[in-house]
Amino acid sequence: MLGYSMPESEPISFDTLSYLQLSYYGFDGKTHRGEMIVNKEVAAEVVEIFKELYEVKYPIEKIKLIDEYEANDDLSMKDNNTSSFCYRTIANTNVISNHGKGMAIDINPLLNPHINNSRGTVSPNTATDYIDRNQSIKGMIVENDDCYNAFIKRGWSWGGNWKNPDYQHFEKNINN
């Protein structure tokens, strides 16, 4: 992590994070184990969410630490990798993002792209086939599906309802 998802000089402490090993149902129909770093405040809840997704056989292509992509979010998204913690700030600010706090998770990001309507861009840029949300594709998140419900009923918010939809993105805001 150090030097990739956790830069050496950043104000996040390892003490605030939890390393999780999660079982998930892969696109190949088999059980897999993945790794994820999340904030300790949501760790137990994230385990519950992924247990629920596993029990309903919700397909997730892979869950790897973003460090396997040298913390390059674009490479991770293009590989359809589900991930959480990666220290970063919100674009054009000094504010730590929810991913930078381990309070956000991106699920199957290739199939669930971020669409910036004002710029006319899609992230990842290889996800244009998945802009149409009326398709029936395994692992594509839509409102009220099993993935959506597993997060929402626990108080997480979904980026799919934003002005610039981020269909892969779930986040939890906890006021301290």
Total tally of structural domains: 1
Total E-strand runs: 9
What overall form do the CA principal axes indicate? Answer: globular
In what order do the strands lie side by side in the largest sheet? Answer: 5-9-8
Share of residues in strands: 15-25%
- Tell me the series of helices and strands, N- to C-terminal: EEHEHEHEEEHEE
Q: Average pLDDT, to the nearest integer?
A: 92
Main sheet specs: 3 strands, antiparallel
Coarse structural class: alpha+beta
Helix content: 10-25%
Q: Separation of termini? A: 26 Å
Characterization of this structure:
The chain has 176 residues and is an alpha+beta fold. Helices cover 17% and strands 20% of the residues. The strands form four sheets. The chain has a three-stranded antiparallel β-sheet with strand order 5-9-8. Strands 1-2 form a two-stranded antiparallel ribbon. Strand 1 and strand 2 form a beta hairpin.
